[in-house]
């Protein structure tokens, strides 16, 4: 990392490899995993989702701004190079629908699809807007200490988290708890908020199954959706301030549980909502 670069911006650098092809508009990007976002197995899922958004934002045929993104983690992304195939499958007057595919060579050198995704972008119109899920009454970020996790995986160092409630357990004794966690969070070092950064922040929460019951079972996201409720101007106005996230689980059943979260700007505007399906094993 240079003195003027940010690890997030380095991680989402995509180089045009091919396209867009004249028939379907597919662009093939060349990307590379970043050591600053290393997780237990492969890179942090939020940075992979951010790379997917970047592949849409850089596409020469882009219409509008991101409204929705879904990423399916079909296999663990290995450290090293990969390609992203990004295609606008349908463009209407004000909306555009996309498919996204991460491809990486296996140990035999054969290309394999490891991640699939869809996205929707749109030209937003000035019309009725409201917040039906207000910012909860919590202490401000400035009054809370940064949360440090002992022996943490590397990607946790890329975010400043200031916990309000629902920390990870210190005793893994199988006891049951409310699944909610509330945390102020921002990129570390600070970085002005945009769609790429917001996407990464949407995945900061640890698996809810670990919060619901103090048993550290193997767990990982298999599908993640982000709905964006702000435009570029609103994100720019938020700047590098901490945003508030609150996540909880609704149900766990036979190896899979859900995870839902809301992300607010400090002024109370909802920036995004996100939903995940998480695999767990015991």
UniProtKB/TrEMBL annotation:
InterPro entries cross-referenced by the UniProt entry: ACOT8-like_C, Acyl-CoA_hotdog, HotDog_dom_sf, TesB_ACOT8-like_N
Pfam families associated with the record: 4HBT_3, 4HBT_3C
Acyl-CoA thioesterase-like C-terminal domain segment(s): 146-279
Domain Acyl-CoA thioesterase-like N-terminal HotDog: 35-120
Identification of the protein by name: Acyl-CoA thioesterase
Source organism of the structure: Comamonas serinivorans
């Amino acid at each position: 990392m240079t003195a003027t670069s940010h690890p997030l911006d380095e991680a989402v650098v995509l180089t045009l490899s091919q396209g867009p092809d004249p028939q379907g508009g597919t662009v093939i990007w060349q990307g590379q995993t970043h050591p600053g976002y290393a997780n237990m197995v492969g890179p942090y899922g939020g940075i992979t989702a951010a790379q997917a958004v970047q592949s849409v934002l850089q596409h020469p045929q882009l219409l509008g701004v991101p409204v929705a993104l879904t990423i399916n983690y079909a296999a663990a992304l290995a450290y090293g190079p990969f390609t992203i195939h990004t295609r606008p499958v349908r463009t209407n007057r004000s909306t555009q629908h996309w498919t996204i595919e991460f491809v990486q060579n296996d140990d035999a050198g054969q290309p394999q699809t490891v991640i699939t995704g869809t996205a929707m972008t749109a030209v937003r119109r000035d019309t009725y807007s409201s917040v039906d899920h207000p910012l909860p009454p919590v202490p401000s970020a400035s009054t809370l200490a940064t949360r440090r996790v002992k022996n943490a995986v590397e990607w946790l160092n890329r975010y400043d988290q200031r916990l309000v409630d629902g920390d990870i357990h210190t005793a893994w004794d199988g006891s049951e708890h409310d699944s909610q966690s509330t945390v102020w969070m921002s990129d570390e070092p600070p970085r002005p908020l945009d769609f790429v950064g917001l996407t990464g922040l949407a995945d900061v929460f640890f698996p809810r199954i670990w919060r619901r019951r103090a048993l550290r079972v193997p767990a990982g996201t298999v599908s993640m959706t982000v709905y964006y409720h702000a435009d570029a101007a609103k994100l720019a106005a938020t700047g590098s301030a901490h945003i508030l996230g609150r996540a909880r689980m609704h149900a766990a059943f036979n190896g899979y549980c859900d995870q839902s979260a809301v992300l607010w700007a400090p002024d109370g505007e909802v920036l995004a909502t996100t939903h995940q399906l998480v695999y767990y094993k015991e």
